[in-house]
Design goal:
The two termini are 31 Å apart. 30% of the residues lie in helices and 34% in strands. The chain is built from 13 helices and 18 strands. Bound molecules: coenzyme A.
């Protein structure tokens, strides 16, 4: 069925991009013009991948190189966005082949993991992605907030000269959140130029003898952009001290006469939500994201681990697509870092008893900390004796993985 499908890139012509833009526009309900503008921008640096049948484009996707934090270290990651297949070509294996070829290309470039927001678990699950973290939507009725007052810190409009400091501030915070992005230009452009218009940006600073210290910032839009009341859509809000958190809440409460609610995205342990003194805000699961271990050694070596006694773990991994990940591996952890080596030689029963046996998609859920080893074992997706399960739980523990950004 799929033998006449060819995946080519990055040689898409402008006609190819126009055709793909129509599929993107139909799939994701954006205008064809906006889809084309987006595709052209990604094509400029080589991010677009297309599938052809008989020379004609029948689908495509965009690959976004970034990194993602796990265990306090940045892991190289390619995000995948805009997977769209022509409505007349669906159900014929095009997406599977397009994604499979793209994953093999990532592996050749030694990208450690790939992450995406799935519209269906089955398609990406069959390609080795596992559910790996959550994105929650917070919604706060401003009338419930009351008037918030604070004076220890000051707020002012963000200026272009603040941008580098804001990026460093975000990165310092993101480091300790499993799953948060080490944002590249693509994500910062979305934060600063979201599709809905030009956002407002404010920074919160503490006056000190050495000059003002950045303690928080926010970017937000009004939605809808005309008329009252509106919603404050905060697409990036960060703070590092209680006073800065209160100042950002005060900014919101001062809108209560014209805006009915403030919304933002984050994890289960969202700090702004936790700053609220009273109930009334809603926290809803917006979606789960999926992760694929593309290069097993890179993925296990690039991330950080809890600092504790040195530990050695053995895995027996099955990967039907990226077969170089399959087989027996030893992960040795010391001083918060891991090294990986392939286990060679005949399989003994003693060695087999030491191993954790699982599929690559389940390793992804374990790796991010989304699912506990014990839960995987209970589901029959991890075969390991109890002492190995305990070690896995100790190694892949941490804050529940989240990902406030969408791509
Ligand atoms: C989702 C989409 C990309 C799938 O493309 P496709 O070429 O039809 O997918 P494939 O034929 O390669 O399907 C491979 C496997 O994925 C799964 N799958 C595909 N479409 C699915 C759907 N709509 N619902 C559930 N599973 C699906 C199936 O397991 C399928 O295997 P099977 O046919 O052996 O059962 C396509 O329908 C599309 O463009 N939809 C609109 C946009 C969209 O949802 N994009 C994904 C964004 S993450």
């Amino acid at each position: 069925m799929t033998s006449d499908i060819v995946i080519t890139n990055p040689d898409a012509t402008s006609q190819d991009l126009e055709r793909l833009a129509r599929f993107e526009s139909q799939a994701f309900n954006y205008s064809a013009e906006a889809s084309l503008e987006w595709l052209r921008a990604q094509h400029e640096w080589g991010g677009v991948r297309v599938a052809r049948r008989g020379g004609r484009v029948v689908g495509g996707l965009v690959r976004i190189p970034m990194a993602q934090f796990f265990g306090g270290r940045a892991v190289s990651m390619d995000g995948v966005a805009g997977v769209a297949i022509s409505p007349t070509e669906r159900g014929r294996g095009v997406a599977k082949q397009l994604m499979g070829t793209t994953l093999k290309e990532m592996r050749r470039r030694r990208v450690a993991v790939s992450t995406l927001y799935p519209s269906t678990y089955q398609l990406y699950g069959s390609l080795g992605y596992g559910r790996a973290g959550a994105r929650y939507r917070m919604s706060l009725p401003l009338a419930r907030l009351g008037r918030v007052k604070t004076s220890a810190v000051e707020i002012r409009e963000m200026e272009p000269k603040d941008e580098r400091a804001v990026e460093r501030f975000y990165r310092r915070r993101a480091l300790s959140h499993n799953g948060w992005l080490d944002r590249g230009g693509y994500i910062w452009a979305r934060v600063r130029n979201p599709r809905g218009g030009t956002p407002f940006g404010y920074v919160v600073e503490r006056p000190t003898p050495k000059g003002p210290q950045l303690e928080g910032y926010v970017y937000y839009l009004h939605h809808p952009s005309n008329g009252l009341p509106y919603e404050l859509q905060m697409h990036d809000v960060q703070f590092a001290t209680p006073e800065a958190g209160q100042r950002l809440l005060a900014l919101m409460s001062d809108y209560a006469t014209v805006a009915d609610r403030a919304c933002w995205y984050g994890g289960a342990d969202d700090a702004l939500l936790h700053s609220l003194l009273e109930q009334g805000a809603r926290q809803e699961l917006s979606e789960l994201w999926m992760l694929r271990i593309v290069h097993l050694e890179a993925a296990l070596e690039e991330r950080g681990y809890p600092r504790g006694p040195d530990l050695s773990l053995e895995f027996e991994v099955r990967d039907g697509l990226l077969r170089a990940n399959s087989g027996r591996w030893r992960l040795v952890i010391g001083r918060g870092r891991g090294t990986v080596e392939r286990v060679r030689g005949p399989r003994s029963s003693a060695a087999s008893a030491r191993s954790a046996k699982l599929d690559i998609c389940d390793l992804a859920s374990l790796y991010s900390g989304h699912i506990r080893a014990r839960t995987l074992a209970e589901l029959g997706r991890l075969d390991a004796r109890p002492s190995v399960v305990d070690s896995l739980e100790a190694v892949f523990c941490g804050p529940a993985p989240s990902l406030p950004d969408y791509f």
